[in-house]
Amino acid sequence: MLTAVTEACQAPAVDVHTCLVTGAGRGIGAAVAQRLSAAGHRVALTARSGDELDALAARMPGPALAVPADVTDPDAVERVFATVEREWGPVEVLVLNAGAGASAPLARTTDADWERMLALNLTAPFRMLRRAVPAMVERGFGRVVAVASVAAKRGEPYIAAYTASKHGLLGLVRSAARELATTGVTVNAVCPAYVDTPMTDGTVAAISEATGRSSEQAREALERRQPIGRLVTPDEVADAVLLCVASAAITGQGINVDGGAVQS
Description:
Layout: H1 2-9, E1 18-22, H2 27-38, E2 42-46, H3 50-59, E3 64-66, H4 74-88, E4 93-96, H5 111-139, E5 142-147, H6 160-180, E6 185-192, H7 198-211, H8 215-224, H9 234-246, E7 254-257
Helix pairs in contact: 2-9, 4-5, 5-6, 7-8
């Protein structure tokens, strides 16, 4: 009798999914990968930094697969998916986190700057989404979450190329979500403000170099731009990603994780 009561009180089993996280070596990507693994899923990790991926995979509580790649290489996209499919089967949860920023006045933004932002922040996610969708539709289940930015929601000075790429990424998410709405596949974006990651460390360094402020002063300036008065944590962004993975009714959204900076 006690056994029956105990079994009845146990939480229901969680469906185990095959996940792929890009830009997984550190920061937001690493936090998302850890959370997906802790939730019981199989998690494949990709980024250019093989050593970081191996170290993260060794710390994961569940099955992990490190697949180093540069996602801006069209051939690498196919290699990553083929490797995951060979090991575990089709990707069911795709987190498009790989990205970078660049800052320059509009008149000094070069063609190379522009093309680099579009290649990494927009074209690579498009290629990965395109590769993942057919198997998701065939199975009647899929979750795609792109890590965009509050720069996908508003214009900011000195980051025209980055802002354009993130606006494009949110547009891709919204269009794909409408197209796939009846298939069991959801497509969403999370839109963080400044997050306490190595990418923000680079922003702090750039501000210090350009203005002569100390690193501490530059970081405080970024913190003050968010109503909560601090940087967002990678785990707080991961919270929003996991919500999108869990829900079948959230799709086509750009969920702000910005301490209240952009209210929409």
